[in-house]
Design brief:
- The complex is a heterodimer of chains A (about 350) and B (about 450).
- Chain A is built from 13 helices and 13 strands.
- Chain A is an alpha/beta fold and about 350 residues long.
- Chain A has a domain of about 240 residues: 3-Layer(aba) Sandwich (Rossmann fold), CATH 3.40.50.
- In chain A, helix 5 links the parallel strand 4 and strand 5.
- Chain A is globular, with a radius of gyration of 20 Å.
- The two termini of chain A are about 35 Å apart.
- The N terminus and C terminus of chain A are likely disordered.
- By secondary structure, chain B is α/β, with parallel strands linked by helices.
- Chain B has three domains: about 130 residues, no CATH class; about 40 residues, no CATH class; about 240 residues, Glycerol-3-phosphate (1)-acyltransferase (3-Layer(aba) Sandwich), CATH 3.40.1130.
- In chain B, about 50% of the residues lie in helices and about 10% in strands.
- Chain B has 19 helices and nine strands.
- In chain B, helix 5 packs antiparallel against helix 6.
- The longest helix of chain B has about 30 residues.
- Chain B is globular.
- Classes of the chains: A alpha/beta (about 350), B alpha/beta (about 450).
- Chains A and B meet through strand 12 and helix 9 of A and helix 11, helix 15 and helix 16 of B.
Chain lengths: ~350, ~450
C-alpha cells in the first residue's frame, strides 16, 4: 500500500499541505478537530460539511451546508470534494446517543455513509477516517475480557443505534476493498467521557440516582475526550489502514464508577428494568433503548494494543482519570456553576446531525 | 581532608583537652541515645586542635556528615562532641580567643542554631510520644464511628454556615454514602477485575475455610514454578465449586513466593446475578482462550478445570472419575504460549456437596445448566448450599513440559488429544492413589 502512496505524497507537499474534509463538522469531535487542524501547518485547508456551522471554524475552514440525509447529497459532496481537491475525509456524521427518530438516524448513519463513500470514490479521495464505537462488539457474558479488532461485531441488530453503525462500518470496508491504494482507518472509540463532551453516558452519570442492574457489576472502560481527538489527529497524520480500538487504559467496575461519581446506585432486577425501559422507550418517555441494558450487565471492554502498536497512539488518560476529569466538571454543573451542555445545545438539538 | 585530620592521634594533650572532655560528658546525658558513647575514648582520639580546625570550615557539612551511617561510629561521636562543645556561650568565646585566626564566630552561631534545631526535633519526638499515649486512651463514640467510616463531618474546617449548607444539600449525603460504599473496595482494580481491598477483607474467611473447615493438606507445592507463566490443571467438583478458591489460597499461603493463581470460571456463572461479580472481584476470570492467553503472556499462573460443568455436574456415584477434558483447549494454550502444565489432584472436594440428582428440566430458562439436588439442597434452602467439612488434599504433580512440541503443534488435533489424555491420566492416577490411602472422608 505504501508503495502506491509514494507518488502522491510529494504532490500533497507541492500543493502546500493537505486538504481535510470533515462531515459532521459541528459534532463534538468535528469542532475540536477543526480547532486543532487550524493550527496545523501541514493542513492547507479544512472543508467542513454539516448543516450547522462549527463554532471553531477559522480562516482555513470553508463551510459547506450539505444535509447527508437528503437524496442526491452524494453528488453535492462529490462536487465539494473535487473542487477543493480533498485528500482526506473524516467521516464523523454519526449520532453519539440513541435517537427516537429511527428513520432519520438510519438515513444519516447507514445511508449517509454510503453517500459519503460514493462521493469519495468518484472524487478519488485517497483516505477515509471513520468514527465507530466499541459498543458495536456487544455486551455479552461470553465476551473475553478484552475484545480485539478480530472479534465479530455482535451488538444487537434489532437496535437501530447499533445496526446503522455496523452497516456504516461495512460500507467503509467495501470502499477499502474496491478502491486500490485507498487508506481506510476506522477508529472504534470506547465511550467518550470528559469535562466538555456530552452524550448519553454523561447524562447517565449526571443523574443523582443512577439505575444499575441488581447483582451485575460489569467492568467498564472510558476514553478521555482529549485522547479521542488525539487519536483522530494521529489517523489524519499517518496513513495506517485498518480498524483500531481507541480505548483508555484500565477498567473499573460499574459500581465503583457510580460510587466515585457520588451518585446513588439504584439496583433493579434486570427483567423488570428491561420491560420498564422498553415501555418508556416505546412511548418516547425514556432516553435509552432496552438494548443498552446489556451494557449494565455484561462486559464490553476492548483491547487498545493494536492502536498503540500500529497507529502509534496511546491514551494519556486512564479510565479512572477520564472519569475524574468528567466528575470535576460535573460537580460544578451540579451546583449550577457550569452550564449544562444539554441546555446549551437545546437550540440546535434535533437539527444537528451529531452532538 | 577533614576525615584524615580527625584520624591523626593527639600528639600532645593540649590544655583545652580538659574542657572538651567535660563538655562531652556534660552534654552526653542530654543527647538523644544514638550510639553508646565512650567519652574518654572519644576525647583521647580527637585532638582539640583538630576539633577547632574543623569547626569553621565545615559547619553544616559536619552536621550532615553526622547523619551518614557509613562513618566510623567512634569518629562520629568525637566529631559530634567536638562541636557540641562549642555551644555554651562562654565556651564559645573561649574558643574564639584561643584560635582567633580560624574561627569566625558567625559559623559557630550557625552550629548553635543547628543544635537548637536538633533539640527542637527531640522535643517534638517526645511530644509526639506523649500524644500517641493519649491515642490509646478511650475515645468518644463519635470519634470511633468516624474512624470506622470514612465520613467527612459537615462543614469540616469551616464555619457553622458551611456546616449548615452541607447538611442541607443532597450532594453531601450522596458523597458520604458513596464513601461508605467504597470503604470495602479499592478504587482501582486490575484488568480482570480483581479488587485487592475486597479480597483482603475476605481473607480471614478464606483462611478459616482453608485451615479450619476443609483442613487442606498440600503436597508438592514446589512443583509450581516460582515465577513465570504456568498452567495448573485440576479436577473439578462441588455444587458451588470451592476448588478454585482453595487452590488460590493454597498457593498464596504455602508457596515460597506466595504465587497469585487466577482460576478460570465457567461462562454460566457470569450469567447469574451476584455470583459472577463476586468471584470476579476475588480473582476468578471467565474461561476462554483469549483471557487465558492474555494472563499467560503477563507471566501469570492460571488454574483451569478442563472438565468444566461436566465436572461439577457429575453425580456422587461418579465421584473422582474424570470426565472428558473439553477439547484439549488447555493443551493448545500451553503449546501456543510455551507454558509448563502442572497437574493438580484435589481429593475431598467431591464430598462437600454430594450430587444425588441433576434437575435439568427448564433450568436453562433461568441461566442454570442444571438444578442440583444434594442431601441438604433444596431441602434446607440456601443453607443447604453450605459445603460439608470434608478433609481436603491438594497434590501438585510434577510439571509436564510441552516445550519439545513447537507452537505449531497446537494445530495437530491428534497430538493435542494425546497430550490432554496424558495430563488426564496423571491426575486420575494420583487421585486413585490418594483415595486408596484415605481412611476417612472427614479426617483424611
Amino acid at each position: 500500500m505504501s508503495s502506491e502512496q509514494k507518488p502522491k505524497v510529494p504532490s500533497v507537499r507541492a500543493r502546500g499541505g493537505k486538504v481535510v474534509a470533515l462531515t459532521g463538522a459541528s459534532s463534538f469531535l468535528g469542532r475540536n478537530l477543526i480547532g486543532i487542524l487550524e493550527e496545523d501547518s501541514s493542513v492547507r485547508r479544512i472543508v467542513a460539511i454539516d448543516i450547522v456551522a462549527p463554532p471553531t471554524a477559522g480562516p482555513k475552514t470553508r463551510l459547506y451546508e450539505v444535509d447527508l440525509t437528503q437524496p442526491g447529497s452524494e453528488v453535492r459532496v462529490a462536487e465539494v470534494l473535487a473542487a477543493e481537491e480533498v485528500d482526506t475525509v473524516l467521516h464523523l456524521a454519526f449520532l453519539s446517543s440513541p435517537s427516537h427518530a429511527a428513520a432519520y438516524a438510519h438515513e444519516l448513519e447507514s445511508v449517509g455513509t454510503m453517500r459519503v463513500v460514493t462521493a469519495c470514490r468518484s472524487s478519488r479521495v485517497q483516505k477515509l477516517v471513520q468514527w465507530s464505537s466499541t459498543f458495536l462488539y456487544g455486551a455479552r457474558a461470553a465476551n473475553p475480557n478484552f475484545l480485539t479488532e478480530r472479534h465479530p461485531l455482535r451488538a444487537r441488530l434489532d437496535e437501530p443505534f447499533f445496526a446503522d453503525k455496523i452497516s456504516a462500518e461495512q460500507e467503509a470496508g467495501r470502499f477499502a476493498a474496491r478502491t486500490t491504494g485507498a487508506v481506510v482507518t476506522i477508529l472504534r472509540t470506547a465511550p467518550i467521557l470528559g469535562p466538555t463532551v456530552h452524550n448519553f453516558l454523561t447524562r447517565y452519570l449526571a443523574q443523582r440516582v443512577v439505575p444499575t442492574m441488581m447483582g451485575f457489576d460489569p467492568l467498564v472502560q472510558f476514553l478521555h475526550e482529549v485522547d479521542a481527538i488525539a487519536a483522530f489527529k494521529r489517523a489524519i497524520d499517518r496513513d495506517v489502514p485498518g480498524t483500531f480500538n481507541v480505548v483508555g487504559q484500565g477498567v473499573l467496575p460499574l459500581s465503583t464508577v457510580v460510587k466515585l461519581s457520588a451518585r446513588l446506585a439504584l439496583p433493579i432486577p434486570h427483567p423488570i428494568a428491561k420491560s420498564f425501559v422498553r415501555a418508556t422507550w416505546f412511548t418516547q418517555l425514556g432516553e435509552l433503548p432496552d438494548a443498552l441494558i446489556d451494557y449494565l450487565r455484561f462486559l464490553c471492554v476492548a483491547d487498545g494494543e493494536r492502536a498503540r502498536r500500529e497507529l502509534g497512539w496511546s491514551p494519556a488518560y486512564t479510565t479512572r482519570e477520564a472519569l475524574d476529569d468528567f466528575l470535576s466538571a460535573q460537580r460544578l454543573r451540579d451546583v449550577r456553576l457550569l452550564q449544562d451542555p444539554a441546555h446549551r445545545s437545546e437550540a440546535t438539538r434535533g437539527r444537528a446531525p451529531a452532538t | 581532608m577533614a576525615k584524615r585530620r580527625r584520624r591523626t592521634p593527639a600528639a600532645a594533650p593540649a590544655p583545652e583537652m580538659q574542657k572538651v572532655q567535660t563538655g562531652v560528658e556534660a552534654r552526653d546525658e542530654l543527647l538523644p541515645p544514638r550510639e553508646p558513647v565512650d567519652a574518654t575514648h572519644a576525647a583521647a582520639e580527637v585532638s582539640a586542635e583538630a576539633a577547632i580546625d574543623e569547626l569553621p570550615e565545615s559547619g553544616p557539612e559536619a552536621a550532615s556528615e553526622q547523619e551518614r551511617p557509613s562513618l566510623d561510629a567512634r569518629d562520629d561521636v568525637a566529631e559530634f562532641s567536638a562541636w557540641v562543645h562549642g555551644v555554651g556561650e562562654d565556651e564559645l568565646e573561649d574558643l574564639a580567643l584561643e584560635a582567633p585566626s580560624e574561627v569566625p564566630p558567625r559559623s559557630i552561631d550557625d552550629l548553635a542554631g543547628e543544635l537548637r534545631r536538633v533539640e527542637a526535633e527531640v522535643d517534638r519526638m517526645f511530644d509526639e510520644r506523649a500524644r500517641r499515649r493519649e491515642d490509646d486512651a478511650p475515645r468518644s463514640v463519635v470519634d470511633r464511628i468516624r474512624d470506622m467510616m470514612p465520613v467527612e463531618l459537615p462543614g469540616q474546617d469551616g464555619t457553622i454556615v458551611d456546616a449548615a449548607r452541607d447538611v442541607l444539600s443532597t450532594d453531601y449525603y450522596l458523597r458520604q454514602w458513596s464513601r461508605i460504599g467504597l470503604r470495602n473496595r479499592s478504587e482501582e482494580v486490575d484488568e480482570f477485575g480483581l479488587d485487592p481491598v475486597y479480597e483482603a477483607r475476605l481473607l480471614p474467611l478464606l483462611d478459616f475455610l482453608y485451615t479450619k473447615w476443609f483442613r487442606v493438606e498440600v503436597r508438592g507445592i514446589e512443583n509450581v514454578p516460582k515465577s513465570g507463566r504456568c498452567v495448573l490443571v485440576a479436577n473439578h467438583s462441588g455444587v458451588l465449586p470451592f476448588d478454585g478458591l482453595m487452590v488460590r489460597t493454597a498457593a498464596r499461603r504455602e508457596h515460597s513466593t506466595a504465587r497469585d493463581v487466577r482460576w478460570l470460571a465457567e461462562d454460566f456463572i457470569y450469567h447469574l446475578p451476584f455470583l459472577g461479580a463476586f468471584i470476579n472481584r476475588i480473582g476468578a476470570v471467565r474461561a476462554c482462550q483469549e483471557n487465558a492467553e492474555r494472563l499467560l503472556r503477563r507471566e501469570e499462573c492460571i488454574l483451569v478445570f478442563p472438565e468444566g460443568v461436566k465436572g461439577t455436574g457429575k453425580l456422587f456415584r461418579d465421584r473422582y472419575r474424570l470426565q472428558r477434558f473439553g477439547r484439549g483447549g488447555f493443551v493448545k494454550l500451553a503449546l501456543r504460549t510455551h507454558a509448563p502444565v502442572v497437574p493438580v489432584s484435589i481429593v475431598g472436594a467431591e464430598e462437600t456437596a454430594p450430587l444425588l440428582y441433576r434437575f435439568e428440566y427448564l433450568t436453562r430458562a433461568i441461566g442454570l445448566p442444571y438444578l442440583p439436588v444434594t442431601p441438604l439442597f433444596p431441602l434446607l434452602g440456601p443453607v443447604g448450599l453450605l459445603p460439608a467439612p470434608s478433609k481436603w488434599l491438594i497434590e501438585f504433580g510434577a510439571p509436564i513440559a510441552l516445550e519439545e512440541h513447537g507452537a505449531e503443534a497446537a494445530d495437530d488435533a491428534l497430538l493435542v488429544g494425546r497430550l490432554a489424555e496424558r495430563v488426564r491420566g496423571a491426575i486420575q492416577q494420583t487421585l486413585d492413589a490418594r483415595l486408596s490411602e484415605r481412611k476417612s472422608v472427614w479426617l483424611g
